[in-house]
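Researcher: Re-running this chain for the archive, since the previous output was lost when a drive failed. Same request as before.
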Amino acid sequence: MYSVRVEGIPEIAGLDDKRVRKVAAHAVNYAARRARTETARRIREQINLPASWLAPSAGRLRLAQRATTARLAAFIRARRRPVSLARFVVSERKGRGGGVWLRVKPGRLTFIPQAFRIRLRAGLELTDENHNVGLAIRLKPGERIRNKAVQNTVRMRNGLTLLYGPSIDQAFISRTGAGIAQDIEPQIVDWMEGEFHRLWRARRALG
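Model: Regenerated structure tokens:
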């Protein structure tokens, strides 16, 4: 899993005042929750996934660690396992070499000739949805599939190749640091600082 760290406000990170650090911890967690929700929304703009698939309870994109007064940092983690392209199949073409139509990106259809759905052994760790359907293609030795929808592949013992789309972490943050996590960094800072100052003003008003 890849993770993004949401740190506390630098000016107060070294303070020992428990009241200040408690408010700061709340602000960090508030920003982290909003960042997780915004990330899920942006991923669904890129990948045709239902909202429930990226819900916190699903565990694929989650707040893995919350901030405390002792540690003013929260972690958001995204699952690395790629999504089976079988999830995105809209229809299959019979005859003429077969093939499937996919909708990986919202509103856009992609065709992969000669690909077909297959049943996998129950419990085989090849899909991210815990079902036993995969999208496969039979490639000749040395042959590679060239289709933008195919981001990952797994070679099976029977000579078939299973096809996968992007993983959640690929959209969240790449190995170079690019991605949604980098794009929303300014918003995270604004959410965190805004919530801290709002809570601190409210606390002082109450004495």
